[in-house]
Amino acid sequence: MPPVFRFAPSPNGFLHLGHAYSALLNFDRAREIGGRLLLRIEDIDATRCRPEYETAIYEDLAWLGISWQTPVRRQSEHLADYRAALEKLSALGLVYPAFESRAEIAKLVAAREADGPWPRDPDGAPLYPGDAKSLSADERSQLIASGAPYALRLDMGAACRRTADLTWNEHGEGPDGERGIVPARPEAWGDVVLARKETPTSYHLSVVVDDALQDVSEIVRGQDLFYATSVHRLLQVLLGLPEPAYRHHRLIRDEAGRKLSKSSRSTGLRELRAAGITAARIRRLVGLG
Ligand code: GLU
Question: Which residues approach ligand 1 with their CB closer than 6 A?
Answer without folding.
Answer: 8-10, 42, 207, 221, 225
